[in-house]
TrEMBL record:
Record's keyword annotation contains Cytoplasm: no
Domain of life: Eukaryota
Signal peptide annotation: 1-21
Pfam families, per the entry: Peptidase_S10
Name of the molecule in the record: carboxypeptidase C
Entry GO MF terms: serine-type carboxypeptidase activity
Organism: Xylaria flabelliformis
Presence of keyword Signal: yes
BP terms from Gene Ontology: proteolysis
Family, per entry: Belongs to the peptidase S10 family.
């Protein structure tokens, strides 16, 4: 894990923007602004698909999989879709164990940026789990995940942007901003659905974990916008909703949430700051909220950078100091070191596995492309929230949204998540804010009802905490989260 002057880089599950500076003044009014890079894309500048080099109509193969790659107890296959002449996106598709032609489809994206989605497949929502941290061989390498999301949906797991995981980009063609990556995502969707339309007749959802809170809202907003504008190459399938998992949406609210997490009794008493520290954090919260409001209003990288820096230096730094001493992990503050997230590398770098996945020549698989991650992190766009996309999808796109967060996650805090969506500007903001947090339950295999966390919301927006879970909450609390997602999908008015 890489530590900088302030903040930290998150691996695999997500990302916190790295803001590097030799010294950062506490008074952000005097902070010297940096000029925008010439290749910055604003939310108002929509890329044209016609310039994307679409590979529509180009041949691409699928490769049926079996227990040697994943003991799935379901039909599954892999493939690589050419989205341009220089880029291919790798996917793993699993049919629902229930009724593949009548169940919905969920597309899953891990974060990074530039992290593979295969940890999500093998450690969180997929049909199989790695055995002995990926050290096993053949059919002994994985075992069935009884709590997989494929129990109630088809699951499509995508490595993106190109250059991440098993997806490839020749030369310097890898996308380095959301504005570039959304084009490839759109081409992939169009290609996949044209090949397999039968899986998209009964609901389609896009899930994004951690930095997926930037991916999913932006990609889906662009897709839905094309549909509403009746663009000639618009995606032909209705997207019913998005699922945001420990999601990095505005990048500031989660830091403001440190006060509630470490200075109040609302959350588990695993770490409590002293009164002096809590008083300092409390004094900084109003200013952080004001700067966040400016960022949300302007969506200017400079304004958002000021807000991020202020929150990091005046709020987040106290927990960051504890992390730097080796006492806690930001991704699961019940541990002093982050749980390993690279077990997929052992399994997926085996030549025999890669051959089964469809690769003629072995290639090096990495769970995170750190070089590409660093380039994304340098873009001004990295500081700009996707809040507007979320609001637009609720009001204009008419989508449903489920948000949930592990209570042990200090990188994307649960109280920060509730704050963020209480303040989300949309038509039902007041109605959402006044809703109480209620207990939500799930039923285990013995028929026992278990408390899963707290939830609040209205039919179009549900926001929940997940007990006994951290940054990769679907993997930490598999049966609970699987039950939550299933209830939400199957009950449109679920609350």
């Amino acid at each position: 894990m890489l530590f900088h002057t302030v903040g930290w880089a998150i691996l695999i599950g997500g990302f916190i923007p790295i803001v590097q500076a030799a010294a950062i003044p506490l008074d952000t009014d005097t902070f010297i602004q940096q000029p925008l890079r010439a290749n910055f894309y604003s939310d108002q500048q929509k890329p044209l698909r016609s310039n994307s080099g679409s590979a529509s109509g180009s041949p691409w193969q699928t490769f049926p999989q079996d227990d040697r790659t994943c003991v799935a107890n379901a039909t599954h296959f892999t493939g690589r879709v050419p989205v341009t002449t220089d880029k291919e996106l790798f996917f793993w598709f699993v049919e629902s164990r229930n009724d593949s032609l009548n169940d919905p489809t969920i597309l899953w994206l891990n974060g990074g940026p530039a992290a593979s989605s295969m940890p999500g497949f093998f450690q969180e929502i997929g049909p199989c789990e790695l055995v002995n941290n990926g050290i096993g061989n053949g059919t002994n390498a994985t075992t069935v995940n009884p709590d997989s999301w494929v129990n109630f949906a088809n699951v499509l797991v995508l490595d993106q942007p190109a250059g991440s995981g098993l997806s490839t980009a020749a030369g310097d063609t890898a996308p380095i901003t959301l504005a570039e990556a959304t084009v490839d995502f759109g081409v992939f969707l169009f290609e996949f659905v044209a090949r397999f339309p039968e899986y998209f007749d009964h609901g389609f959802y896009v899930a994004g974990e951690s930095f997926g809170g930037r991916y999913a809202p932006r990609y889906v907003a662009d897709t839905v916008s094309d549909q509403l504008n009746q663009a000639e190459d618009a995606f032909p399938v209705k997207i019913d909703g998005i699922i945001l998992v420990d999601a990095f949406v505005d990048g500031i609210s989660h830091m403001i949430g440190h006060y509630d997490l470490f200075c109040t009794d609302e959350y588990q008493d695993l770490l409590r700051f002293n009164k002096t520290t809590c008083a300092s954090i409390a004094a900084a919260v109003p200013r952080a909220e004001y700067l966040l409001g400016v960022c949300q209003k302007t969506h200017d990288p400079q304004d958002c950078g000021v807000a991020v820096l202020y929150a990091q230096v005046n709020i987040e730094k106290y927990f960051h100091d504890e992390v730097a001493k080796g006492k806690y992990s930001p991704y699961d503050y019940t541990f002093c070191i982050p749980p390993a997230e690279f077990y997929t590398e052992t399994h997926l770098n085996r030549p025999e596995i890669q051959k089964l996945l469809g690769f003629g020549e072995p290639r090096e698989y990495r769970a995170a492309n750190f070089s590409l991650n660093a380039i994304w992190s340098e873009q001004p766009e990295i500081l700009v929230p996707t809040t507007r996309n979320v609001s637009w999808l609720l009001d204009e796109g008419d989508l449903r949204i489920l948000v949930f967060n592990g209570v042990y996650d200090a990188a994307i805090t649960t109280p920060g998540m509730f704050r963020e969506f209480d303040e989300l500007p949309w038509s039902q903001k007041d109605e959402f804010r006044k809703q109480p947090k209620l207990d939500w339950q799930w039923t285990d295999s013995q028929g026992e009802t278990i408390e899963g966390g707290k939830i609040k919301g209205v039919p179009k927006l549900q926001v929940a905490s997940v007990y006994n879970a951290s940054h990769m909450s679907p993997g930490d609390a598999k049966p609970a989260v699987s039950s939550l997602v299933r209830q939400w999908i199957e009950s449109p008015d679920y609350r």
